C-alpha cells in the first residue's frame, strides 16, 4: 500500500475496492484476494483523516480507505458481512486514539 495522505477517488463494488490517488497511483484489492482487514488509527495525523480501513491482499499490497470518505459506509456494510468479522475489535478500534486492530482475517490466511 502506498502512503495514506491525499485526496482519492474510491470505488467499492462487487469486484472489490479501488483507490485512485491524486498522483495517479492506484491501490486495489478484489474480494477474492482479500486476506485481512484492519483498522489503523494514527494519532495527531498530519492529514485530515486519522482512521483508515486497511484491506490487505493475499500475497501483499492492498488498499487503504479513510473512514471519513463517503465510500466508507458501503465498505463497512460489506466488511461486516464477512464471515468472522470481529465487531468487538472494530468497536475497540473506533474508541481509541492509536493502534492497529485486525477485525477480519480469511481463515486460510494465518497472520504472521
Structural class: alpha+beta
Note the main sheet.
Answer: 4 strands, antiparallel
Poorly predicted ranges (pLDDT <50, ≥5 residues)?
1-6
Distance between the termini: 17 Å
Number of strands: 7
Q: What is the strand arrangement across the widest sheet?
A: 6-5-4-7
Helix content bin: 10-25%
What does the average pLDDT come to? 87
Order of helices and strands: EEEEEEHHE
Helical run tally: 2
- Rg: 13 Å
Percentage of β-strand residues: 35-45%
Shape: globular
Keywords:
15% helix, single chain, alpha+beta, 112 residues, three-stranded antiparallel beta sheet
What do these coordinates show?
- The chain has helices spanning 72-80, 87-94; strands at residues 8-12, 16-21, 26-30, 34-41, 51-57, 62-66, 99-105.
- With 112 residues, it is an alpha+beta fold.
- The chain has a four-stranded antiparallel beta sheet with strand order 6-5-4-7. Strands 1-2-3 form a three-stranded antiparallel beta sheet, with no helix packed on it.
- β2 (16-21) and β3 form a beta hairpin.
- The longest helix is centred in the last third of the chain and has 9 residues, at 72-80.
- The chain starts with 7 loop residues before the first strand and ends in a 7-residue tail after the last strand.
- 21% of the residues are buried.
Amino acid at each position: 500500500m502506498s502512503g495514506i495522505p491525499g485526496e482519492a477517488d474510491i470505488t467499492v463494488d462487487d469486484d472489490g475496492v479501488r483507490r485512485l490517488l491524486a498522483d495517479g497511483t492506484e491501490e486495489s484489492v478484489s474480494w477474492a484476494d482479500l486476506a485481512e482487514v484492519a483498522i489503523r488509527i494514527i494519532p495527531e495525523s498530519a492529514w485530515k483523516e486519522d482512521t483508515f480501513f486497511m484491506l490487505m491482499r493475499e500475497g501483499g499490497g492492498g488498499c487503504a480507505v479513510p473512514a471519513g470518505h463517503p465510500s466508507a459506509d458501503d465498505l463497512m456494510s460489506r466488511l461486516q458481512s464477512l464471515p468472522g468479522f470481529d465487531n468487538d475489535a472494530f468497536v475497540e478500534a473506533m474508541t481509541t486514539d492509536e493502534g492497529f486492530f485486525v477485525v477480519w482475517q480469511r481463515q486460510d490466511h494465518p497472520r504472521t
